[in-house]
User: Which sequence fits this backbone?
C-alpha cells in the first residue's frame, strides 16, 4: 500500500518528501555540521545566506517532519496535479523563502524594540556575550540565567527550521482552489470546509504570534509569512491566467 501511495505521488512532491527525509536522517547522524543549515537571524554572526535555501529541509523532531510531510503529500499532490511540476515548485520555494524573510523582519523589529529598552552601556556588555557564546548555548538547549540577557540571546541567535512556512502556503493554495472541500479535523474529529480551516488556522497563528509567549518556540510569523506569499501568488495567477508567472 505504501509503495502504491509513493508511486502515485506527483514528481515534485515525491522528491521534496525524499529530500526532507534524507536531511532528517543526516541531522541525526552528522550532528553539529547540519546546524550550519538552520536559519539563524540575519543579525547573528552565525547567519549564512545559504540558510534561506536549506532551513526548510530541516526539522526539529519526528513529529515535526511527520506532520509537515503529511500535509505536503495531502495538499501538495493536489496542487501539483493542477498547476504542473514547475509552477508548483516555484510556489513551494517562494512560500518557504518568503516565510523566512517575514520571520526575520519580525525578529528584527522585536530585537530593535527590546534593545531600545536596555541601558546602552549595559547593552554593549550583553552583546559581547551574545555574539561570543550565545548561539552555542542555544544549540545545547541552554541560555543565560539573567532574564534580560537570556531574552536578548534568544532574539539574537535562535535558529529556525522546518517546512511549515511552505506548508502554510500550500494550505492557502488548496483553500483557494478547493474552498468547499471538506477536511476532517483530528481534534475534534469533525469535518470543516477548506476555506474555513485555512482562515481559522491563520487567525490562531496570528493570535499566538502577537502573544509572543516566552515558552512558545513556534515561528508563527513564518507560518503567516508563507500564507501571505501564497495568497499573493495565487491572486496574481488568477489575474494572469495565460502567463506562467
Assistant:
Amino acid at each position: 500500500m505504501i509503495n502504491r501511495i509513493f508511486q502515485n505521488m506527483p514528481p515534485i512532491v515525491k522528491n521534496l518528501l525524499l529530500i526532507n527525509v534524507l536531511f532528517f536522517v543526516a541531522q541525526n547522524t552528522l550532528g553539529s555540521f547540519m546546524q550550519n543549515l538552520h536559519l539563524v537571524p540575519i543579525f547573528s554572526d552565525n547567519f549564512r545566506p545559504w540558510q534561506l535555501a536549506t532551513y526548510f529541509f530541516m526539522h526539529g523532531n519526528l513529529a515535526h517532519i511527520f506532520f509537515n510531510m503529511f500535509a505536503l503529500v495531502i495538499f501538495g499532490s493536489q496542487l501539483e496535479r493542477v498547476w504542473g511540476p514547475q509552477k508548483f515548485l516555484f510556489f513551494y520555494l517562494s512560500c518557504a523563502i518568503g516565510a523566512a524573510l517575514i520571520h526575520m523582519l519580525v525578529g528584527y523589529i522585536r530585537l530593535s524594540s527590546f534593545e531600545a529598552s536596555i541601558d546602552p552601556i549595559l547593552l554593549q556588555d550583553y552583546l559581547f556575550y551574545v555574539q561570543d557564546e550565545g548561539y552555542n548555548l542555544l544549540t545545547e538547549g541552554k541560555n543565560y540565567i539573567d532574564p534580560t540577557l537570556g531574552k536578548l540571546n534568544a532574539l539574537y541567535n535562535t535558529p529556525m527550521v522546518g517546512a511549515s512556512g511552505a506548508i502554510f502556503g500550500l494550505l492557502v493554495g488548496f483553500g483557494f482552489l478547493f474552498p468547499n472541500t471538506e477536511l476532517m479535523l483530528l481534534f475534534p474529529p469533525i469535518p470543516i470546509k477548506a476555506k474555513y480551516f485555512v482562515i481559522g488556522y491563520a487567525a490562531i497563528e496570528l493570535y499566538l504570534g502577537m502573544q509572543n509567549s516566552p515558552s512558545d518556540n513556534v515561528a508563527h510569523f513564518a507560518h503567516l509569512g508563507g500564507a501571505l506569499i501564497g495568497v499573493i501568488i495565487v491572486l496574481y495567477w488568477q489575474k494572469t491566467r495565460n502567463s506562467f508567472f
About this structure: The chain is about 70% helix and 0% strand. The longest strand covers residues 182-184. Strands lie at 182-184, 191-193.
